[in-house]
């Protein structure tokens, strides 16, 4: 129970897997966390929630078996994330995005993207070699390519200014 964890002043991280069934409800999840947990108890977090993490589904195991029911593409997720982040100005907790290649989202969301997949589970396509941001990118999950394909991935050619973090797992602080 999240409330009991929070009441004991534990660090609480909420992870939401993004798939076909959860995608339309991302705003509701944020509103729930922001509204129901927005009560100060510590200096670390206004709400008692340290992090809200949205994770693009990994298409392995049961997810792969049920791809028609739960599978989505990065292209399908993008407008929902754009809408969600357009309303978030100063969240009282950290928000992260896991399992997204940079070319799948607009630069304004890059500062939320973290690299969390092991190297053995990801790959870079031949066209990624010409991307201006390959060294900052997670890459693409191998099972995503198996179930969905590679048509939506295009190298970023624009010269977008970024502020780096010097953290391998969270390489971009901000796209300027």
Write the layout of secondary structure elements.
Layout (H helix, E strand, L loop, with lengths): L1 H6 L4 E7 L7 H11 L12 E8 L5 H4 L1 H4 L3 H14 L6 E5 L14 E2 L7 E2 L16 E2 H6 L14 E3 L7 E4 L1
What structural keywords apply?
176 residues, alpha/beta, four-stranded parallel sheet, two-stranded antiparallel ribbon
User: Proportion of β residues?
Assistant: 15-25%
Give me the count of strands.
8
- Helix coverage percent of residues? 25-40%
Ranges with pLDDT <50 over ≥5 residues?
40-46
Straight-line distance between termini: 39 Å
- Specify the overall morphology: globular
Query: For the report, how would you describe the main beta sheet?
Result: 4 strands, parallel
Structural class: alpha/beta
Question: Would you write up a description of this structure?
Answer:
The structure is a single chain. This protein has one domain (2-175). The relative contact order is 0.14. It has helices spanning 2-7, 26-36, 62-65, 67-70, 74-87, 142-147, and strands at residues 12-18, 49-56, 94-98, 113-114, 122-123, 140-141, 162-164, 172-175. It has a four-stranded parallel sheet. The chain has 176 residues and is α/β, with parallel strands linked by helices. Strand 1, helix 2 and strand 2 (49-56) form a beta-alpha-beta unit. It is built from six helices and eight strands; from the N terminus they run αβαβαααββββαββ.
Quick structural summary:
By secondary structure, the protein is α/β, with parallel strands linked by helices. The chain has 6 helices and 8 strands. It has one domain.
